[in-house]
Design brief:
The longest helix has 20 residues. The protein has 97 residues and is mainly alpha-helical. Bound molecules: zinc ion. Zinc ion binds next to helix 2.
Amino acid sequence: MRKIEREQNTVGIMINFYCGKKHKRKSSLCEECGALLKYARERLENCPYGEEKKSCKKCITPCYAPEKKKRIRRVMGYSGPRMIYHKPLEWITHLFK
Ligand SMILES: [Zn+2]
């Protein structure tokens, strides 16, 4: 799997987790989170660094529009620490079922 694809999956898992907890969604993302995921995936797909890319934490600034950056940060800030307490694998399988 390409690095970009892996990152896209990770973002998807984070947003799914966030939406499930914050917006009480179970099987699908709400409109807002769905749009955010689509945006994040597109940004990754168009990442100028490609396979050489560093962590998005470092290169998120020039890539994301300010308003989207705020949202994705909120998602990461929420999901990141909490997902450690859940089984990440469950989310991965959940996502691709
Ligand atoms: Zn949501």
